[in-house]
Write a structure and sequence with these properties.
By secondary structure, the protein is an alpha/beta fold. The chain has one domain (3-284): NADP-dependent oxidoreductase domain (TIM Barrel). The chain contains eleven helices and ten strands. It has helices at residues 24-37, 51-61, 81-94, 112-124, 138-146, 166-174, 196-205, 209-219, 231-238, 247-254, 269-284; strands at 3-5, 11-13, 17-18, 41-43, 69-74, 102-105, 131-134, 154-158, 178-182, 223-224. The strands form two sheets. The chain has an eight-stranded parallel β-sheet. It has a two-stranded antiparallel ribbon with strand order 1-2. The termini are far apart.
Length: 285
Amino acid sequence: MEQITLYNGVKMPIVGYGVYQVSKEECERCVMDALDVGYRSIDTAQSYFNEEQVGTAIVKSGIPREDIFLTTKVWVEHYGYEETKKSVLESMRKLQTNYLDLVLLHQPFSDCHGAYRALEDLYDEGKLRAIGVSNFYPDRLVDIASFSRVKPMVNQVETHPFNQQIEAKRWMDKYGVQMEAWAPFGEGRGGLFENPVLVQIAEKYKKTTAQIILRWHIQRGVVVIPKSTHKARMEENLNVFDFVLEQTDLNRISKLDKKQSSFFSHSDPSMVEWFVRMVEERKGK
C-alpha cells in the first residue's frame, strides 16, 4: 500500500476504506472484510453512528492497532472546546483505542475554532497523531490554518472527476494540508461511471472506470476512502497500483471538471439552515 506523509511526519495510506452510509448491522462485517483484503486505513465519524462496530471489527481482526490508520470526525453538535474534547474521548471508547490516528472537524460551522483548540490540546497530549478538518472551503481553511497553533494536516472534501477542486487543492498545497476525497466516485451521480471518456480510458488499461477514477486521484496525490459493502468490489478498489495513467489520459479527465458540487454547497445559506435543523433534531433526541 502506498502512503503519503503528512507535514508532521505521520504516514497515511493513500487508499482507505470509508464507512459512510454503512449500516450498524453491516459495518462490523464490512470492516473485517476490508481489513482482510488489505485495507489498513478506516474512516468513520460520530455522525455515521457506527464507531462501535468499527472498533469491534478492528479488535476481532487481530491486526495490531499500530498497523491500522484510524480516522473519525467530530460532529457539529459537539463543537466548542469542552464538548469536543469530551466527544473525542467518547469516540475513543467506542472505537476501543487509547489514541486516534486522525480526527477531523466534520463541518465548518458553529464554534469550529473552539472545537479545533480541543483537537490541538489532544494532539499535544499524544491522544491524536494528526488533526484536520472536513468540508472547509479555501477561505475557511486559510482562516483556521492561519489563526491556530497547529495547522490542519488534512482537509477531507468532495473531490471526483466532475468536481476536481483545482483551486481548493492549490490552497491546500500552499499550506501543506493533505487533500482527502470523500465521495471519490461522486456516488456515481451524473452518470460518472458511464462517462464515455472514462469508459474509453478503462478499456485502454483493461481496468474498470472505478479503478481509473481512483488511479486519477492517486496520481494527483489525493487520499481516497472508497466505500463498498461487497468484498469483491473492495478488492477491486485496492487493485490500482499496477498501472499508471499517461499524461494524455490525465488531460482528458481534467476536461470533465464541472467545477461544482454534485451534492450541495456549504456556502448556501439554506444548506447551512439544513445543518442547523439537523443538529437541533439530534439534540431533541
